[in-house]
Amino acid sequence: MKKLILLLAVLSVLLWPVNYFSVNRKISLVPQMISEPDYQGRQLILRNTYLYPNVPLARFFQNKAVIITNKYLNNFFDFIDPGYYLFGSHPRELVDGQNYTRLPLFALIPILWFLFKFKNKRKKIFLLILTGLLLILSLFLNHPVYDFLLWPFFLPMIYFGLLDIWQKNKNLGIAASSLLLLEVILELSRVIS
Amino acid sequence: MKKYFFIIGLIIAISLGFFVRFYKFGKAPAGLYLDEAGQGYSAYSILKTGKDEFGMPFPAAFRSFNDYKTPVYIYLIVPLIPIFGLNTFSIRLPSFIFSILSLPLLYFLILKLTDKSSKSKKFALISTIFLAISPWHVLFGRTNFECNVALFFLLLAYYLFQFALEKPKFLLFSAIFFAIALPAYHSERILVPLMVIFLFIKYFKIITSRSYLKYTLISLFLALAISIPTIRIINTPGFLARASTLSILSPKNSWGIKEWPSLYLSYLSPRYLFWLGDSGPRSSYPGLSVFYLWQLPLYLYGLYLLFNRKIPSKLKSFILLLLIISPIPASLTRDPFSTIRALPLVIPIILICSLSTADILERISSLILKSILITLVLFYSILKLYSSGYILNEYYRAPYWNYGWEQVTDVIKQELDPKLPIIVDNARNEPYSQLLVFMKPDPAVYQRENFEVSNQDYYSYMGRNTTKKIGNITTRGINWVEDKKVDQYLIGDDLAISLPQIKDNHLILIKEIDYPDGSPAFRIVKTKP
Fold this sequence. Notes:
The complex is a heterodimer.
Chain A: H1 2-23, H2 39-49, H3 55-61, H4 64-79, H5 82-86, H6 108-116, H7 123-137, H8 151-168, H9 170-192
Chain B: H1 5-22, H2 34-49, H3 71-77, H4 81-84, H5 88-113, H6 118-132, H7 135-142, H8 146-164, H9 170-181, H10 188-202, H11 204-207, H12 210-232, H13 241-246, H14 260-266, H15 270-276, H16 296-308, H17 313-325, H18 327-331, H19 346-363, H20 367-396, H21 405-415, E1 422-424, H22 432-439, H23 443-449, E2 468-470, E3 473-475, H24 480-483, E4 489-493, H25 499-504, E5 508-514, E6 520-526
Parallel strand pairs in B: 1-3, 1-4
Antiparallel strand pairs in B: 2-3, 4-6, 5-6
């Protein structure tokens, strides 16, 4: 059973590289940092500054650091949006066009189970490394082109999530695995055809 | 002192909620959006004539701009007009009142769903404070949005149902408020039946037991009786107007049911809740999402606690129920992350954040550290709300709130010759509702001069008469060839009456009304035939 679940998890994450290479044929991997000069951003901050009744308040909410932190948070929130992986960021797509489906929708069940229900001594370390990677990748303006680095993390999440569901609730395990398998077959056959 | 700690805390939380909602209330957002104005004049018309502006006596859904507005909010404005007059303040007041009333209601509802221990009271207090300063709830509590009133009735009905589990006669009150919530907003037309079905299944044994059956049947009859006006029009094009234009299931929309999972999930996604917010300029504040950024870790940790800690079962099922069903009506519409339609979601998210906050605060033993932390977070949140909601919003969002019509009517009343006709351009918007509110013409006269539909066809005829007559004012598109030959005033926005047009057509500029950012909102000119 473990091997079958592993196979299903591998098939589930296979959609990511398949779609990645079909979308990113001419993509540049040259890093663009969030700290790059932003003239328009600075002008906006300057304009906003004059709207506040006093300088300390204006400085607190409108300063140069806000330009960078906003970009950073924007990238970080892209990464922690389930829609980024499941629907290519639909319904609010990313402006750079890296909007492709990375994971099947029903992979969400084992992933959520892994995040919120699965208990394991090494889970904390796993999540710490994953969070660290997300925090680093968010430093890049063109962060979606590097998201393939996150890919290996989803395999254990789906695998251990599914395995734990099977162990805790067999019926739910059958349902979750069947739905995932069906979707994976449909998606992969669609991509291949 | 310890005895009164929670009562004092509740009073502080309500005061905080009152302060952030009442500050510049009626003045910010500056302007009166056409839907708000439409509701205001409908209420005024009901008050004066017993009919809406189309001459329909006490409608079950208000025709307005052919969007058939839900009736509860409009009827709530009616008694406020004799006290406060017909103005932005009174039109937005029901939303404010019910927004404030929701605060103690949430507190007592949580106590009802828990064991009323000191721990539960702390949790209830944290939730109330979070709701008091919630950008999502504050925004809709300061403006005319029916969703806020509907949420109050929904929570009240649920609260009374909890009482009914102890005393059956409360079933009657619960049914009444469920029946009021149903027509209070479009989303509740889906949420109320779902919630009632849930309660019916969960407490089937109790409500069908011998001591309850009589009350259950009377409650059903009562709810049905209150819902008769709504049921009567349920199959009309008017009742279905909103659904047919917005629903992803409607053939009119290019989006289909395949979009639904992504739309649904967006309502639970941290990206939308804590960062992007609503893309609608009237349902969001610039630079602020529906929750504060600092609440993100609380949301994630709270979700973990929800599934892994022992939580009172009634509370857990309430959170899960609202968390699951609240995004359903909104996600069936084409607009991504519509916070108006998903407002009930504010409650479970706040409760989830409060679960983690209560847990974290319990781990901090130092009272001083706790006090500093709470004060700093509250202070920052209120400042952020002030920055986004009152400073940036006023500057950037004034056009979206149809700013300027009050100033236009002041000029009409004070500076223009009342004997001359006035043409108000309506090519890009429908200013007649704002003119009605600020000019306050006799509704009986307005109804007579602006016939659009008979009472028989009120809910079925979907045609519109876009030309409106209000005394010497006519709202229609400007016809430059004909209109400049007549001695009259013309009013329009920057596109309708541009500076080159004024020069080319030899017009006299009477007044220019500007947006807060200095760009022209409207120009009032006089022809020189």
